[in-house]
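Design job #97: recover the sequence.
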């Protein structure tokens, strides 16, 4: 337990030292994005329709072009089995953002982890199954387009993967949710 606290303390100390070594520019930003999710395969034998996903993230710039992000996400997919599949949980990761030559527009690359769960709902919206939370991965790329003040648009694409088991008591079904998302967001730096 002492080792964990030592690692956490060192991590925050490095962030504080790094923050003082940087310029006085804005390091924090908040982003809200969403878009269409295109399933890459069946989910436990169920064909999914194009879905909808939303994500809210808080960003912290560690270095000039590198930062951390953390937030919450939601995705919804309808299945050909007359059931709905919802994924919710937390996202966190690293981001790299760099301007294009002689432009205010910047491209970004993100790689991170998920700690999410899948819920299965019937036509009335009642939850009939829940996988419990577990780890997955996420990767994204796009552009950050300034639109005035400290606001910008953040269109991009995201790959998302979560593999969980759904235990109904009678059977255990592996649910491997993988989708690509075309999304657009709005970001405020402060």
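Job complete. Output follows.
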């Amino acid at each position: 337990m002492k080792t964990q606290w030592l690692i956490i303390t060192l991590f925050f100390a490095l962030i504080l030292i790094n923050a003082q070594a940087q310029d006085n520019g804005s390091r924090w930003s908040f982003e809200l994005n969403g878009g269409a999710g295109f399933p890459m395969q069946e989910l436990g034998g169920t064909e999914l329709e194009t879905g909808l996903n939303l994500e809210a993230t808080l960003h912290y710039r560690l270095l000039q072009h590198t930062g951390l992000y953390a937030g919450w996400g939601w995705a919804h997919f309808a299945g050909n089995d007359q059931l709905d599949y919802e994924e919710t949980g937390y996202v966190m990761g690293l981001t790299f953002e760099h301007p294009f030559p002689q432009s205010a527009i910047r491209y970004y690359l993100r790689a991170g982890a998920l700690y999410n769960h899948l819920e299965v709902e019937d036509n009335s919206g009642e939850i009939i199954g829940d996988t419990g939370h577990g780890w997955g991965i996420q990767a994204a790329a796009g552009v950050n387009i300034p639109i005035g003040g400290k606001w910008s648009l953040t269109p991009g694409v995201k790959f998302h993967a979560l593999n969980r088991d759904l235990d109904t008591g009678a059977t255990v079904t592996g649910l491997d949710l993988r989708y690509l998302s075309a999304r657009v967001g709005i970001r405020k730096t402060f």
